[in-house]
Design goal:
About 55% of the residues lie in helices and about 0% in strands. It has helices at about 10-15, 35-60, 65-75. The longest helix is centred in the middle third of the chain and has 26 residues, at about 35-60. The chain is elongated.
Length: about 80
């Protein structure tokens, strides 16, 4: 049971509370660490993932549990069966 004001708790708070797990299931290949092509691709992928993570974390800051609760209630009231659509 959550006893605090849901408007004051954000997804960022939850993300931090659970230890800031990896946001993406993709990453770099290191099968041939001496390969310069792999190194350059990994640099580009690292930069893109860092940028995407930064955008996502900032978005987390703007989403409160109160907002999620309202969206849940709206979907339930509209008769959604729980499947993702």
């Amino acid at each position: 049971m959550i006893t605090c004001d849901l408007e004051q708790v954000t997804l960022l708070d939850i993300y931090k509370a659970v230890g800031q797990p990896s946001l993406f299931a993709i990453g770099n290949e290191h099968s041939n660490p001496d390969c310069m092509i792999e190194q350059v691709v990994n640099l580009a992928v690292d930069d893109a993932l860092r940028e995407a993570a930064s955008v996502l974390v900032e978005r987390f800051r703007t989403i409160s549990l109160g907002e999620l609760n309202r969206l849940f209630d709206e979907r339930r009231a509209a008769g959604h069966d729980g499947s993702i659509s």
